[in-house]
Design a protein that fits this description.
Length: 671
């Protein structure tokens, strides 16, 4: 597990070699154990290493026998032992027992097709000294990030955007179209980022760069959803009569795949544990770990302080007790939210309107005090239909009969009712006939009507929806079932650029590796090919995964209502964090930025503060965007977090873990 950064300059470009040092310093948190560099004419690339496998000999860059190919690598290859034996049998000479070395020899043997052999999470760059070309690739599911910018001076890349910003040719500007996507979706889907000119390499893609220019880009893998005819052919059992497999047979196969994936993800030369929320996915992972380990599993959970606040700590404790785990917990409150907001956003590189970021950062910090690697349960909802919107999609067929004016009237009326947030979202989504529009409107931050009111008149185009993003993804999905198609697009968008981005950035912020065994691509391919009724049956979500879980977990963990992550930010924005909100979203600030309409934002705050409506998601999303501008747009890029950014307005006091809090915030502002 590492962080990588570098650049390949165009012919004639002369750059100071200290640029690479600055880029690597910006991602020191990703790899505090050591660094390594490769400089060859126009190329300069390097890595920061967090030692997990082959602690003594895994130093990068690593080369093939001839020295022609050199690699810097971020991630883990879980089948590296098997690959190593295959490479030795083919006559390759390997000097280490690291997973990194297997990649460079596979590239020597197979070129870009080396990616087909890798089972893991990764982003890497390979320099071909003879051809003077660079090959960069990202794992199938997008677990590890990789950003790049094509500039006048050449190609710049890295594991985090903040490292790219330290290259003098990379500009700091807001991508206006990406802002529109962010305001709709709570995140920016790849390939865009919130920075104009900086792209996120999509999952399952590779690039080839020559003379500082991208000369080829290719998708090498996609989720194998199939249409009903293809599904039927994949579902035969040997030479049988063509009958469909029984639920029990499917359950056996899924359990075997889960056991294999967890076993592979436990390969480590350092202490490890697991994040445990008490939900189905993380609890299943902990149960499988306990089966395979002789020592107690170290587990880590987070809850919330405050009277009347409900969280999942009791469920996590129940699972930990059932499997004899060494369990660690913490509770966070509004003071943590305020003191860490700036630091967490700096590590994220770009805002996501996610209230769980502070909690993720803090539980990662807790875990790092005990272990260097954790397993998490991310991905189960997107593989096996765990969200309420998958069941809600069943009602979309009724919306198809509504005349367009009636559907528009329903949306207009629902928007003006107080409360009932989830019901209103479901009604809005199901009222759209167009599939892409419907999917885009399940749990948006701002719906289309609200976006048109939010953006200032001169930016009316930003009020448009983002259905085209979903339509582009859906055009590649071969499934015809609506739930399967929703799972496909969620796995390509929400999972990658919201959940996995959050998990990678905030665990690595604490020099902690997070592994996601549910997203092993063999398991993902199995899940994608499952018939839809094994994911959602008679309203029961995660049907097949729950069948597996019944062999492992207490029934009350499986059958309880899905709770999510109930963060009390609604209450905090009416209390301790109200001053921060009013400062970040003041009329003066909004007019100066010239993106959002002050009158509309002020109304959102007034309604929230009065208790008339819960606008915490929208307000936190807008607050995060303003904090991001103050950190990344208003001032030169930094090599490290210093806790000195003024998120409290002119003359205010910046925050950070060592800052004295937010006392200087004015209690006035726009109300």
């Amino acid at each position: 597990m590492c962080g990588i950064a570098g650049y390949l300059s165009t012919p004639g470009s002369m750059l100071d070699r200290t640029i690479l040092s600055d880029m690597l310093q910006a991602i020191l948190h990703r790899g505090p154990d050591e660094d390594g560099r490769l400089e060859d004419g126009p190329l300069a690339m390097g890595m920061r290493r967090l030692s997990i496998i082959d602690l003594a000999d895994g130093t990068q860059p690593i080369f093939d026998e001839s020295g022609r190919y050199g690699i810097v690598f971020n991630g883990e290859i879980y089948n590296y032992r098997e690959l190593r034996q295959q490479l030795l049998a083919r006559g390759h000479q390997l000097k280490t027992h690291s997973d990194t070395e297997t990649i460079v020899h596979l590239y020597e043997e197979f070129g870009a097709d080396c990616l087909e052999h890798l089972r893991g999470m990764f982003a890497f760059a390979i320099w071909d000294q003879r051809e003077r070309s660079l090959f960069v690739a990202r794992d199938r599911m997008g677990i590890k990030p990789l950003y790049y910018s094509q500039t006048s001076a050449g190609f710049v890349f890295g594991s985090e955007i903040k490292s790219l910003l330290l290259h003098p040719a990379v500009q700091r500007q807001v991508d206006i179209q990406a802002l529109s996507q962010y305001v709709s979706l709570k995140y920016v889907p790849a390939p865009r980022t919130l920075f104009a000119g900086i792209s996120s390499l999509e999952p399952g893609h590779w690039l080839r760069i020559q003379d500082g220019r991208v000369v080829a880009k290719q998708r090498y893998w996609d989720l194998p959803f199939a249409d009903p005819e293809q599904m039927a052919s994949l579902d035969r059992i040997g030479d049988s009569d063509g009958r469909r497999r029984s639920d029990e047979e499917y359950t056996d196969e899924l359990l075997a795949l889960l056991q294999e994936s967890v076993a592979l993800h436990l390969r480590s030369d350092v202490p490890f544990g697991a994040f445990l929320s008490g939900g189905l996915d993380s609890s299943t992972i902990v149960a499988l770990m306990a089966q395979q380990l002789s020592a107690p599993v170290k587990t880590f959970s987070v809850g919330f302080d405050g009277e009347g606040v409900q969280d999942e700590l009791p469920y996590a404790a129940q699972v930990a007790q059932a499997f004899g785990c060494e369990h660690h917990t913490l509770k966070i409150g509004a003071s943590d939210f305020l003191s860490l907001a700036e630091k967490v956003l700096w590590h994220l590189d770009q805002p996501i309107a996610d209230q769980a970021t502070i909690a993720t950062h803090m539980v990662a910090k807790l875990a790092r005090q005990h272990v260097k690697m954790v397993l998490t349960g991310e991905g189960g909802d997107e593989l096996f239909a765990g969200y309420a919107r998958y069941a809600g999609e069943r009602y979309a067929r009724y919306g198809q009969w509504l005349p367009t004016p009636v559907a528009a009237g329903l949306r207009w009326g629902a928007e003006r009712l107080p409360g009932l947030r989830r019901a209103k979202i479901a009604l809005t989504a199901c009222s759209y006939r167009d599939e892409a529009q419907r999917f885009a409107n399940w749990f948006p931050m701002f719906k289309e009507d609200a976006k048109r009111q939010l953006f200032v008149a001169g930016r009316a185009a930003l009020g448009q929806g983002v259905a085209e993003v979903f339509a582009a993804e859906l055009s590649r999905c071969r499934a015809t079932d609506s739930v399967q198609r929703m799972l496909y697009v969620d796995s390509k968008l929400w999972l990658v650029d919201y959940l996995l981005l959050r998990g990678d950035k905030l665990t690595m912020a604490n020099s902690l590796e997070a592994r996601v065994p549910l997203l092993d691509h063999k398991l993902v391919e199995f899940a994608a090919r499952l018939p839809a009724d094994l994911k959602l049956r008679d309203g029961q979500r995660k049907y097949l995964l729950k069948r597996v879980a019944r062999r492992l977990l207490p029934a009350e963990i499986i059958d309880r209502k899905k709770q999510g992550f109930p963060i009390p930010i609604e209450r905090w924005l009416r209390g301790e964090a109200a001053g921060l909100m009013q400062d970040l979203l003041s009329d003066e600030t909004l007019r100066r930025r010239d993106f959002f309409e002050p009158v509309y934002v002020r109304r959102l705050m007034q309604q929230h503060l009065s208790g008339y409506c819960d606008h915490s998601t929208e307000l936190w999303g807008l607050m995060s965007f303003e904090m991001w501008q103050r950190q990344f747009i208003d001032q030169p890029p930094r090599r490290e977090f210093g806790g000195t950014v003024d998120i409290c307005g002119s003359g205010g006091q910046g925050t950070g873990e060592n800052a004295p809090g937010l006392a200087p915030i004015s209690s006035g502002g726009a109300t």
